[in-house]
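Students often ask what a holo structure prediction actually looks like on paper. The answer is less mysterious than it sounds. You provide the chain, you provide the ligand, and the output is a string of discrete structure tokens encoding the 3D arrangement of the protein together with zinc ion.
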Amino acid sequence: MTVRTLLVFLLLPALAPAVLPAQSTPAAVFGYTDFAAESKIEQQFLAVPDAKLAGQHLKTLTAEPHMAATPEDHKTAEYVAGKFRAAGLETEIVPYRVLINWPKVVRMEAYDPSGKLLISGPTREHVDGDPGQDDPRVVMPFNGSSGSGDVTGEVVYANYGRLEDFDQLASQHIDLHGKIVLVRYGSIFRGVKVYIAQQRGASGVLIYSDPQDDGYYKGDPWPIGPWRPETGVQRGSVQFLFKYPGDPETPGVASTPDLPDSARISPEGNQPHIISIPISYHDASPILQALQGPGAPQGWQGALPFRYHLGPGGVRVHLVSQQDYQRRIIWDVIGKVKGAEYPDDWVVAGNHRDAWVYGAVDPNSGTAAMLEAVHGIGALLRQGWRPKRTIVFCSWDAEEEGLIGSTEWVEQHTKTLELAVAYFNMDVAVAGPDFSAAAVPSLKQFIRELTHSVPSALSATVYDQWKLAHIEGNEHRTSNAPKEDEDVHVGDLGSGSDFTPFLQHVGVPSTDIGSSGPYGVYHSTFDDYAWYVQNADPHFVYLQEMARVFGLEALRMADSDVLPYDYVTYARAIESYIAAARRKASDAGVSSLDFGSAEAAAGRFLAAAQRAHELQTAGTGDLPRLNQALRATETALVNDAGLPNRPWYRHTIYAPGEFTGYAAVVLPGVNEALDARDGTRAARQLSVLTQALNRAAQTLETIR
Ligand SMILES: [Zn+2]
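The corresponding structure tokens follow.
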């Protein structure tokens, strides 16, 4: 679901599939007492993922539209299960019965004050020459979790629909009650735009793609270039993911097919009740052009060739949305390789398989790469190799509707997953050549170190290429931008993909990787195989690269002698978060808060982490016990009661922001209380944080 931000656009040369260079064999690796034997296994693994085969997987998976719960989606599940079995994985297709809406009617008309029709839509997505657009199975553009209804109203333009955008309208005394809010895509998760519009009294939302953000302003549109064409629409869920993801009727409970209806709750709090409809700029343009009222502030002007106004006045819109909500069957595919030494300690690696339409980039570049990673693991298995820990590959369904397949599976296996040593996510694996990653701090160095071992199509290794883009990114930064650390940047995990239930509900250390590039067809029918081959990766070398990185994550973690978590970095990150929260508290005038105990607990955690790091490096003593304590440390950061107002989110350090959605909010309990200027709640949450940090420190202190 996520679109990674781009550091730089590199030119895409025609390249032959990469061969393994000599420098991809490190002598020592954190977590291994002697890396020589494992190094041989890694080299054998890295030689297997094949660019051509990855391209074939992609072609097969994207041959038909395969939205979650459709027969075509089931076909892709069978395909993935077949490849898992062929590699020797113990494989099952796991069904869930979950609430999903499909569109029956989506319509909009706009009129000027004289009653003249300005536009009637939505206009069908169309460009000359796209091969897949006319398939009758292409679902009409709609928003997952949208309300149904028939509303007419005046229009107000609200820029990106961020909290500050709505506040700006309020400061100009523009009332939103009964209005249709027109917002552009970008900056934050679309569900947040609708969430705030609904809170402010709007009766409907139109979300359009402005050419400034992913259209002609960026470059040539498809089919000439990679950017969004005039009729291209971004579908997508507007579920309130920041409250809870998954089946909106079963928070905390798995929607197994036999779950009785009496065990389900009303989805009301988790979805908008107002209508929202995604449209193209072809359809938004006549509305924006007719809109009167104050001129839009400078930053609100997009790339359409006229001056934008805020409204209301000049145009009325009629919206009809009839959504068919049904409990539908979806299918996860789960493939396991049992660990020889620690069978109960799982290393989980997953990618979602369902797409809004063809999903060549999102998500099936990830599926194709995962299948070649599985191919590599299969080759090792055939030689008699067994991992130390159990490896579980997962092909999630219904991610697009709200991370549903992964969330239900995690909710079903919460107890087991409390022992899982890692979750590795890959959603959009390849939209171009620029590798990027996000992770919990304990795995940031793990992912950096690992990319030294994977050859790259553009540089010697994926790390070198990543570093190059990082340096160029820094050069292009303005002087007042935050100073980046010396090493390549690994981001924080917010939400918008399947790592959310693992990390933020259960506390499984997680990473998310991808490789980005110019990509303007996100969630449109044009995200298809033809687009992929022309724009992203004509020789599938980046699929091969991502297969290697993804597979190596699983392999290196599963076989490690000592779990390679870096809690020193984690503790330092937490110290910096606390310092920032302290500054925020004084800026917000919540000055009575005592940060001393939290700071002391973070300091204790850091000291314990430094001692643990020495023992991890030495790799001697009671290793099973050491590993157990290392793993339990992340769990110690989970607070069973969860966040105030959203108890499903239980991690004390990371959550998706209520008003950002994709982006992470750190120390969410404390910071959200400060945002609300609620000193009492902030004090309580500071105490919850302090307890969590002391638990984590205590857990590490048991290591000797
Ligand atoms: Zn996706």
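The CA atoms of residues 377 and 563 lie 20 Å apart.
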